[in-house]
Design goal:
This protein is mainly α and 466 residues long. Helices cover 67% and strands 0% of the residues.
């Protein structure tokens, strides 16, 4: 009966199911906000996004933080007063601990180019152009990754309606989007082609120069899939370093204040404001942030979370090399490791969780229970869940998704790994070691038969002979 049920899932259009879940989750949160607004409640009950008065601030405050030339007048009156307010706030924050000096050279250079563009065109026109380019890049990325035209439309809509994408647009956080659309196709190519080619290297080097810790994902894929060409890692390091140095020189030439000393000072400011005492914990999905929010900041929470994430990554790599964990499971765990181990993981960085469902939809195989957990957890992380907030409109504004996202990622990862490891078919630690950590072999059928035999013997109550 179970096998028939699993086989019936082969023909399910996962792209449309994912779209329905994501669109339904977004609509449900929007309806909750509408009801609360009708009942006379104010923010934060009236939107699942950020503070309305701070809309697009990551884009405009960042650009206005650089004192380069005069800003072009707002010839487009739409939101003109709001943009003027953003400019005034940026001027007030200049020279304080809230500054853009912590950003890497590539992000700084791109922000400087946007700021220079605002000297010749209206700021709102520059922002609209950036949104248009971002949407075109996303549409092109899905076209390159998905063959079926019907699935393309569903995945495009699912991504654009997801909470990370909406949050990016609301905040104007273009760097999170650029990081996602470079990381996603690179990981897709690694899984599909089983190699780290120059296109993937260029994409990963770009993503790493925007957010270095995303290299956790391709590193786990590299080890788990057994790509085995370490010289490709050297190439990735060389390309990334060249991009880092060249963009640093260019950024310093355009804005001399940006140098090694200012960058190090900016990183210290970032650590104090966003790691030790996060300014907006309600929009951060990470296990250390959730623990710090619930129990107060303790350095040990970061170390525990990092050790937990590392353990999950090691087990996932070993199981995948044994042929016990499929591609979607490996990629989900790799992405979940970022939520579990990193101290600062903004909700706009969750868009790559669209990849595991896309891989499940592309392989055309029946879904196991582990696959269903991967699919359900990934889509869960992509919907807004901002229902219950704190009463303070300052640093205590948060919703239950702050805890739900890292908790679901952690539990789903452990379930997938435990199920893949066949631990139910063993009776002692030596059997677990033999199954999970034996030398790699191409005889996957032999290992599968051995696991089945172990489980049968265990159910029958007979002894297990090695």
């Amino acid at each position: 009966m179970a096998s028939e049920w699993h086989a019936s899932l082969r023909n399910v259009d996962l792209a449309k199911v994912a779209l329905c879940i994501i669109a339904g989750g977004t609509l449900a949160n929007a309806m909750f906000n509408a009801v609360m607004n009708a009942l006379g409640h104010g923010y934060p009950y009236t939107t699942f996004l950020f503070i309305p008065g701070d809309r697009w601030s990551d884009f405009f405050k960042l650009a206005f933080a650089y004192p380069i030339g005069s800003v072009h007048p707002n010839t487009i009156l739409f939101m003109a007063d709001h943009i003027d307010t953003m400019k005034a706030i940026a001027n007030e924050l200049r020279g304080t601990a809230i500054n853009p000096d912590h950003m890497l050279p590539l992000a700084t250079l791109l922000a400087l180019l946007v700021r220079l563009g605002m000297t010749v065109a209206s700021p709102i026109a520059i922002f609209a152009a950036c949104l248009g380019v971002a949407a075109a890049i996303y549409v092109t990325m899905i076209k390159a990754m998905v063959v079926d035209p019907a699935q393309r439309s569903a995945w495009r809509a699912a991504g654009l309606l997801s909470y990370p994408a909406l949050f990016m647009a609301d905040r104007g956080h273009m760097f999170a989007f650029l990081c996602a659309v470079t990381l996603m196709p690179a990981c897709w190519r690694m899984v599909r082609d089983r190699k780290l080619d120059m296109v993937s290297i260029a994409l990963l080097a770009t993503a790493a120069n925007l957010r270095p810790n995303v290299l956790i994902v391709p590193a786990i894929l590299f080890l788990a899939l057994g790509l085995g060409r370490w010289r490709d890692c050297v190439r990735l390091g060389a390309v990334g370093l060249c991009l880092l140095l060249s963009t640093f020189v260019l950024a310093n030439a355009v804005y001399p204040h940006y140098n090694l000393g200012s960058w190090m000072a900016g990183m210290e400011d970032y650590r104090r404001l966003y790691v030790e005492h996060p300014l907006s914990p309600g929009f951060t999905s990470s296990l250390p942030s959730a623990l710090n929010l619930l129990f107060g900041y303790q350095p040990v929470f970061g170390r525990i979370s990092l050790a937990f994430a590392a353990s999950i990554a090691v087990v996932a790599c070993n199981l995948a090399r044994q042929g016990m964990l499929n591609d979607a499971g490996v990629l989900f765990v790799a992405l979940a490791v970022m939520l579990i181990g990193l101290p600062a993981m903004g909700d706009y960085h969750l868009l790559p969780f669209l990849l595991p469902p896309m891989i499940l939809a592309s392989n055309g195989q029946p879904l196991s229970r582990g696959d269903l957990i991967v699919f359900a957890a990934s889509t869960f992380l992509l919907i807004p869940k901002n229902y219950l907030y704190g009463s303070d409109l300052g640093s205590d504004v948060w919703s239950w998704q702050v805890v739900a996202n890292p908790l679901v990622a952690s539990l789903a990862s452990m379930y997938v790994l435990i199920r893949a490891s066949r631990w139910r078919g063993v009776t002692n630690l030596s059997q677990i070691r033999d199954i999970c950590f034996s030398p790699r072999s191409d005889q996957l059928a032999v290992r599968a038969e051995r696991s089945s035999t172990l489980f049968t013997q265990f159910r029958a109550g007979t002894s297990i002979k090695r």
